[in-house]
Design a protein that fits this description.
Layout: E1 2-3, E2 11-17, H1 26-32, E3 45-55, E4 59-68, E5 71-86, E6 92-103, E7 118-128
Antiparallel strand pairs: 1-2, 2-3, 3-4, 4-5, 5-6, 6-7
Amino acid sequence: QITFSGGEKDSVKVVIQSSSLFTDNEYRDEHLMTEEFFDVETYPAIELTSNEITIGDTSYVIKGELNFIGKKYPIDVPFLFVGEGKYDDGKEFTAFEGRFDFDRVKFGMAEDAAIGNVVNVWFYTELVKK
């Protein structure tokens, strides 16, 4: 659920299905879904919830909390306004993109040099105007 209008009461809640993670390696993806890592059966979703959104000229920062494999962690997520458009059905949208990193070991996962500790998340989203 995302409510975003450029005002003080804006909020963002992003829910990512854990099983949708993609590393461009099918074997690694299957391994990451197990109890040893993302444990998608126990924790089917990764959630980002905002406490505050700060607004610049074309940039924003979500200050919030990441809920990942049963633990919560404070996080800042920078993102940019990238434009507006209209779908073929006439609905208008506003587009944003951003990136954030987090250390999976802080959530209780074991260190593993083969996959690294820092998870990089890139996103692009189109929010449909009401």
